[in-house]
Specification:
five-stranded antiparallel sheet
């Protein structure tokens, strides 16, 4: 059967048990999923978002029947080309996030789709942690971490995935599921795969009888090494099932699918300190690291837990201005007590006196200080990549030396890279383990540039393998990048053993072909990923994938990284002009998953080391869709010029919806409106939809008089002035009141007024408030000119109302306030949580309730750095504040919760189970539209944080004495 027909037959078979929405065969999503963090690209024929073991087992059996290659992928943060395929790509991410912890918290069982940082969050309450700590731990998933044996900054070889693994559940290419932690599964496998086990035992015997090979294996794995298949288990274990489980570590999906892993957890020291140590040259820095490696306590416990080297180019990439040409070593020590920590710091600083440091060593145990150091270290690769010349590719290589060779080997590596003309290259990494990464920015546009890279790699191989007997890949995986050189590093005997292991597990050679084993000696200089210029906002993106953990549509439509990938391909097709049909198809296919479902919230920028906001790209694409002069733009302009009238039109619609709700009931109303949304595209109604509301300024000010009205103008003045605040209710809260079923009695504007008056404030409303808006509505639709015009109108009105900035300005909607701060700079602007914290806390008496409450921190609060502020305020009001895990942007995105409710539903898919488990009855936030979506999908009402503060406070009578 022809290969094309085999794919068709495979597809026909799997569609019987995998829903169509989890099978991708269109050009756009195949392209999007054909990209990982590495510098190669292959476009898969079929992408399958797998859901469970039974499904993967069937997929592998059918792929085997038709002899079709299969590659597995988790987060796609790998760097050596091991998570890409030109055949079948099985993704194990969002559906693979289950876990369980042993009663003593010393073991954790994990599915492959859990992000490493999430594991640490789960273990933190028990003072335990996930031992492997790659720099990508906030984005990389457990499956990729284990299958690449990714280690990181602290774990070295003593606590990497191989050393921490206890058992594994795996699926072989024939569909067999084996659980090495289950006696029943072991017995079944022994009966069905007896020859498999006997081959494992025979391989072990061959290795153990070869003393030279045993010595070589021990020597190679004394430092970090992920070149080839892991041979260490044959020496460390006798039980064939232990060997099988550990063979998976570092196998990069070439042997089996890892569906679950049980690992030891590691003690998380409560006391930590770090120092950025500066040296005049790289050799001296490495000599100091060698000395650090030898520092131990009386009981043999290492004193230095991490030592990360950053050469002068690395420091320059993160704008370190300490001095010219310096090398830094970011050093960390940990302890069980504060006293022990200080003793260890003294030991390190005493040892450092024998070295020539640029500055006196300064260790800090303040989390906020040392966290900045480690954030800088984690962002080196993307930061350096972001400084590359547009259109070039950022490559990262990964080598290791034995610690005693470190000073000479490091200097030699630095000189070698420079000799090939890579003037912007940098060296950094885990010096304490002899493990370095070096980054080069490379063009592959000409054959001479390709050969320059090839020549560099040949010289690196000679240096690392021939001169220092080190590792060509220490923790990033062999991948395609180093596959041609596995035999060279290990020699014929060890390489032959690796091939026999591959043959045993995967006799047809269908799992991740081309990775680890590749017969093409030039595969490392083929299939390079193109990085054409698309837009200055995203041109610095290196597609590392760090953004995806914050992208709410990752795993639903497209992620922020995938949007950039597709836009780059569209830009390439436009530039070349040779494939107009393909261009038109991609542009059409992009419309819904790329444009319409992007929330534009910008949280992706918070985890991107370059701060790239893919939401800004989406706004630009929308702007191109609605250019000035178009009908849509004219409608947007009309709405802006007649905004008060538009709001007057919306209020009757809300009243009609509320009346219909009362007549039809929730169930019928939901059914009817869902049908209307699906058929004719009307905005989706929800039971949390509010009634109409209109601000009556005179009545509000007349009903409530402030309890106190003066304060000193400033700390040096004794002349009191009235307590005044300019209050701008957002257009949402000027229009929308309470839903039919509400836990509160007053609309938000009334409640804010009540709270302000309670604290003694006189409230000023800006003039012509009904026609004012921050412009967010138009910005989100791609009409920035109109948006900025509305912001300017608002700024002018607020400037006048505040008497040229004399009084603070309060807006009750955090997304609106965020845009106001971006566009209105001449006065102080606040949302409720920060305003209450700064201006009202001392004027109110807080009486915390003992009732548990949920809190949602909006995207805009995170952007403004106010997440801790609203959490702290909530904790003033309740002794039990719960911030649900893994709930970022709610996905309501202004009106998207009405127009594309599926985005809001997906974004909050993890909310309701947590709310039900904690038995919480109410939640709080500070964005009305977000609260509508949260109420809809949490099963409990969400209201403004102002309601909680008002409930828990009384006027501070001491202020009147």
């Amino acid at each position: 059967m022809e290969k094309e027909n085999r794919y068709s037959a495979f597809l026909e078979k799997i569609q019987r048990f995998v829903p169509q929405e989890r099978i991708y065969t269109d050009e756009l999503r195949r392209l999007a999923w054909g990209t990982d963090a590495g510098f190669y690209r292959l476009v898969p024929q079929i992408v399958i978002r797998s859901e469970n073991e039974e499904e993967v087992s069937k997929l592998l059996r059918i792929a085997g029947r038709y002899e079709l290659p299969v590659t597995f992928r988790a987060a796609g943060t790998s760097l050596s080309g091991q998570a890409i395929s030109d055949s079948i790509l099985i993704v194990a991410g969002k559906h693979w996030e289950q876990y369980s912890i042993s009663p003593d918290h010393e073991r954790i069982t994990l599915q492959p789709g859990i992000v490493g940082q999430r594991v640490n969050e789960i273990l933190a309450p028990y003072q335990r942690k996930f031992a492997p700590d790659p720099a990508s731990v906030k984005s990389a998933m457990v499956g990729g971490i284990v299958m690449n044996n990714a280690s990181g900054m602290n774990c070295g070889t003593h606590a990497n995935s191989d050393r921490m693994l206890l058992s594994a559940r795996l699926i072989l290419p024939d569909g067999t599921i084996l659980d090495t932690g289950s006696a029943t599964s072991l017995a079944q496998f022994a009966a069905s795969h007896a020859s498999f086990l006997s081959t494992i035992e025979a391989l072990r015997s061959r290795i153990l009888t070869d003393e030279a090979l045993v010595a070589r294996i021990r020597y190679k794995y004394a430092i970090k090494n992920v070149m080839g298949i892991n041979l260490l288990p044959f020496i460390l274990f006798e039980d064939p099932f232990d060997i099988i489980a550990h063979l998976l570590v570092g196998s990069e999906g070439t042997l089996a699918f890892l569906s679950e892993v049980t690992m030891k957890t590691e003690y998380d020291y409560p006391h930590k300190a770090s120092a950025m140590l500066y040296f005049y040259d790289i050799k001296e820095a490495c000599r100091a690291v060698v000395a650090m490696k030898g520092l131990v306590d009386a009981d043999g416990t290492p004193i230095v837990f991490g030592a990360e080297l950053l050469d002068h180019k690395s420091l320059a990439s993160v704008n370190d201005t300490t001095g010219e040409g310096l090398t830094a070593v970011l050093t960390e020590t940990k302890a069980r007590t504060a006293e022990e920590l200080q003793r260890r710091i003294r030991s390190i600083t005493t040892m450092l006196t024998q070295f020539n440091t640029y500055l006196s060593p300064y260790f800090t145990d303040k989390v906020e200080e040392y966290s900045r150091y480690w954030a800088i270290r984690s962002g080196i690769f993307p930061s350096v990549g972001g400084t590359r010349q547009p259109g070039t590719t950022c490559l990262i290589e990964d080598v290791a030396f034995h610690i005693n060779d470190l000073p000479e080997a490091t200097a030699a590596l630095q000189a070698l890279i420079a000799s090939h003309g890579y003037d912007d290259a940098c060296i950094y990494g885990h010096a304490l383990e002899g493990n370095y990464h070096f980054i080069i920015n490379q063009s592959f546009s000409t054959e001479s540039e390709v050969q320059r890279y090839a020549s560099l790699m040949k010289d690196v191989i000679t240096l690392v393998v021939d001169k220092y007997n080190g590792s060509l890949k220490a923790e990033h995986g062999t991948g395609r990048n180093m596959a041609p050189f596995v035999r060279y590093e290990w020699g014929d005997t060890a390489y032959q053993l690796m091939k026999e292991i591959k043959q045993l597990f995967d006799p047809k050679g269908l799992l991740n072909p081309g990775v680890i084993f590749n017969d093409d000696p030039l595969c490392y200089i083929k299939n390079f990923k193109p990085l054409p210029l698309a837009h200055p906002i995203v041109d610095k993106c290196i597609e590392c994938g760090f953004c995806e953990v914050n992208c709410l549509t990752c795993g639903f439509t497209l992620s922020s990284r995938q949007r950039i990938v597709v836009q780059r391909e569209i830009a390439r097709l436009r530039q070349e002009g040779n494939h107009p049909e393909q261009l038109a198809k991609l542009e059409k296919q992009y419309r819904y998953p790329g444009n319409e479902t992007c929330a534009g919230d910008g949280l992706c920028a918070l985890s991107c080391p370059m701060g790239i906001n893919t939401g800004d790209l989406t706004h630009i694409l929308r702007e191109a869709t609605f250019p000035q002069g178009s009908l849509a733009y004219a409608l947007g302009d009309f709405a802006a010029n007649h905004f008060a009238g538009i709001k007057h039109t919306i209020r009757p619609v809300l009243t009609l919806a509320n009346t219909a709700h009362g007549v039809l009931g929730t169930k019928s109303m939901t059914c009817i409106t869902k049908g209307m949304h699906r058929i004719v595209g009307l905005p989706q109604w929800t039971p949390a939809m509010p009634k109409a509301y209109q601000v009556n300024e005179k009545q509000l000010n007349r009903e409530q008089a402030p309890l106190q009205s003066t304060q000193p103008i400033d700390s040096s003045s004794t002349t009191p002035e009235p307590l005044k605040v300019v209050y701008f209710p957002s257009c949402i809260n000027q229009t929308m009141g309470l839903p039919r079923k509400s836990p509160t009695e007053q609309p938000l504007v009334n409640k804010i007024m009540s709270l302000l008056h309670k604290a003694g404030y006189e409230v000023i409303f800006p003039k012509e408030m009904d026609n004012l808006c921050c412009g967010t509505i138009w910005e989100s639709k791609g009409m920035p000119v109109i948006a900025d015009r509305k912001a300017a109108e608002l700024g002018k009105a607020l400037w006048e109302a505040s008497e040229q900035g004399r009084y603070p300005v309060l807006c009750d909607q955090s997304p609106c306030l965020h845009r106001m701060r971006e566009t209105i700079k001449q006065m102080k602007l606040y949302e409720p949580a920060e305003f209450i914290t700064i201006f009202l806390v001392d004027k109110l008496v807080f009486k915390p309730i003992d009732r548990p409450v949920a809190l949602h921190v909006t995207c805009s609060m995170r952007h403004m750095g106010l997440a801790d502020t609203i959490i702290a305020l909530a904790k003033r009001c309740s002794t039990q504040v719960f911030v649900p895990a893994e709930v970022g942007c709610c996905g309501f995105a202004g009106d998207k919760g009405f127009t594309h409710p599926e985005v809001n539903e997906y974004a909050l898919r993890k909310l309701r189970p947590q709310i039900e488990t904690t038995k919480i009855g109410i939640g709080y936030s500070n964005s009305r539209t977000c609260e509508i979506g949260l109420t809809t999908h949490a099963g409990i009402p969400y209201v403004s944080i102002a309601y909680l503060v008002d409930e828990c406070t009384t006027f501070n009578n001491l202020l009147q004495q």
